[in-house]
Write a structure and sequence with these properties.
Number of strands: 16
Shape: globular
Structural class: alpha/beta
Strand content: 15-25%
Radius of gyration: 21 Å
Number of helices: 14
Order of helices and strands: EEEEEHHEHEHEHEHHEHEHHEHHHEEEEH
Helix content: 25-40%
Strand order of the largest sheet: 3-2-1-4-13-14-15-16
Distance between the termini: 48 Å
């Protein structure tokens, strides 16, 4: 057995509205075995100094953060798409242009560096919404899941867990227009063939699992939606779907099907407690009722939704009808779950002209346990006995966090304030540096290869 002990200056424990001081945390073989607040266990503060064989964690220690929605290859677009006018659709053209440059080797390099950047930001698990399946023009690789394997290996090398959300992407629009150009790389012909290919991939290593995704109602014909949903249900796998990200998507769905995307998904059996709707920026009141009724989660991606001019989703109304909220960095305009978390509150203030919609503990839940649950890792996201031993320690002595009370760190800290990251009991980041990946160097090289 491999045992480790940590002493956290402050740790945020389940069911606590704010961090607890002086917490002794022990793990064996990647699972927490003891979580002891020393001051509450009768151990005097002075006794902390005599503890031996313990790794001290100055600052605020949190559960591992979950990035519930990622497109790893989008990281190469950062700083290249923000300067001009346009909207989501003009950005999408630039994104498609990048896809023609990727193959399994270059994707492995880019994803490894991107996932390592996530580790530096305190992310211990990522949900990779993966639809770049095939070669240019739709040609199949000898291994039809070569791109999937590259992503799973990239996560292993970066030291984080991954839920590979194999995405069904068959058509170019709600009315069934065929895929053309770069989109040909995404398609499997129909949902049955998508399912056959996806079922043929079994990742190795305990850091990975496979889920499913419907890209959107634009990309999967209505009569094939239930095939994807059934595939996920039969495997007890998470099922994700881009939903109502743009008003144009809602309008097109009403024009073709006479209902909103949420209504169509409900009719076709896609909604359920293991389903996560990504974005849900433009739902109707009836849509929110359906999502709440079916216990669907919503993954908000505020930095991407801002960057692409998508809009501000009704986060508080979602929470009020019982929708669990998770967080994602999506297009990786930034990779910073602290920014995503506080944006849920701050964007709601912009939308309503009022303050005080979510407390810090609510935002932490979205950043941790809700995200892990959305990705199928129900045993992660909490510093509690039996849970996976994931820890993220944030410094409280940087220019951004100095003088900030521990409870206020979610509103002050950034990814750059992360000092230590532990995943399944293994230290991946120490002193703010990744232990096995030179992240800036590898990002520069990987991005240069696919953008030159």
């Amino acid at each position: 057995m491999t045992a480790t002990r940590w002493l956290a200056e402050y740790a945020w424990l389940p069911e606590h509205a704010e961090p607890v001081p002086e917490v002794l945390i022990e793990a064996v073989d990647g699972r927490f075995t003891t979580v002891t607040p020393l001051t509450r266990a009768g151990v005097p503060t002075a006794g902390v100094d005599v503890l031996t064989d313990v790794v001290r964690l100055p600052g605020l220690t949190l559960p591992g953060l979950a990035n519930a929605h990622s497109h790893a290859f989008h990281r190469a677009l950062r700083g290249r798409t923000q300067g001009g006018r346009g909207d989501f659709w003009t950005w999408r053209d630039q994104m498609y242009a990048l896809t023609v440059r990727l193959d399994p080797d270059s994707y492995l390099a880019l994803a490894r560096a991107t996932f390592a950047e996530m580790a530096l930001a305190g992310i211990t698990c990522v949900g990779e919404f993966h639809y770049l399946h095939h070669g240019p023009g739709g040609s199949r690789y000898d291994d039809p899941n070569a791109m999937s394997a590259a992503l799973v290996e990239a996560a292993a090398q970066a030291g984080i867990r991954i839920s590979l959300l194999d995405t069904c992407y068959l058509t170019a629009s709600v009315d069934g227009a065929p895929l053309t150009g770069p989109q040909l790389r995404f398609g499997d012909g129909d949902a049955a063939r998508w399912g056959e290919r996806a079922a043929g991939f079994t990742p190795t290593g305990g850091h990975a699992r496979v889920g499913a995704a419907v890209h959107s109602v634009r990309a999967v014909p209505a009569e094939q939606l239930d095939t994807v949903a059934r595939w996920a249900r039969e495997r007890d796998a998470p099922l994700h779907v881009h939903l109502s990200e743009q008003p144009a998507e809602n309008d097109a769905c009403r024009a073709v099907h006479g209902r909103t995307p949420t209504g169509l998904l409900a009719d076709r059996g896609v909604l359920g407690p293991t389903t996560t709707a990504v974005h849900a920026t433009h739902p109707t009141s009836a849509d929110l009722g359906l999502l709440g009724e079916h216990r669907v989660g919503v993954c908000l991606c505020p930095t991407t939704e801002r960057d692409l001019a998508d809009g501000i989703g009704p986060a508080r109304r979602m929470a009020d009808v019982g929708i669990p909220l998770s967080l994602g960095s999506d297009s990786h305009a930034v990779i910073d779950i602290f920014e995503e978390a506080r944006a849920v509150e701050l964007d709601e203030r912009l939308r309503t002209h009022r303050r005080g919609h979510f407390v810090a503990a609510d935002l932490l839940t979205s950043a941790t346990v809700a995200g892990h649950t959305a990705l199928g890792w129900t045993d992660a996201g909490r510093i509690a006995v039996g849970a996976r031993a994931d820890l993220v320690t944030v410094r409280l002595d940087t220019a951004r966090t100095a003088g900030v009370p521990a409870v206020g760190a979610l509103f002050a800290a950034t990814a750059g304030d992360v000092d230590t990251v532990v995943v399944d009991g293994r230290t991946v980041v120490a002193g703010g540096r990744h232990r096995s990946v030179d992240v800036p160097t590898e990002l520069r090289a990987a991005i240069a290869e696919v953008t030159a």
